[in-house]
Amino acid sequence: MPVFLSFIRQPFCVSFKIVGFPGTRPYSFMAVNAHLMYGKMRDRRKEFDALMDWIRGRVKQVSKTYYPNFMLLGDLNLDFDNPRTDRERIEAHLKTCDDEAGDEVSVNFPFLETHPGNAGPFRTNARESQTFDHIGLFFRERGLPMHVDNKNMGKNEIGPDYGVFNFVNLFQDALGQTREDLYPRFENKVSDHLPLWLRLPLPKD
Prior knowledge:
The protein is 28% helix and 20% strand. The protein is of the alpha+beta class. The radius of gyration is 18 Å and the shape is globular.
């Protein structure tokens, strides 16, 4: 379509409050679960941009929203098979989103970065060739990890940190099969997307 009309798969939202140390205010955030379309890149970008616009607008409307922080979780189908070239392009696009959000809103997509304990960006598919899945942070409150904090991820055992649970190794050990034999089964029997996780420290003074 020449313009964005509607999401192919509608995102879902659910709110959370994470209690911190005694006497502190809990983290309050809206989690947005999204599975964006897989097709031509121009169509993917339209859905991605529409979702970014909606989240950014909600976070900026502090007087109209109950939750000052949003967490985007899911398969965004961003083409990220070649980090050397794709990261610069995607980060430039996200930088535009960050600039449009203004100084009062921080935007962070840690899975576009190279984790300090990893040789390169985490891969989130079973073949470990793509990073389609992401966790995106959009927040007004301080204490949540900003983009500049990604270089220190994992250096404290209580967080912040992030990673991928690679269940391919478990299937390989349990079934005694090679990874190449398992790939077709992942695509047709179980998900070929690896679970992502993000650890945040408890709120404190």
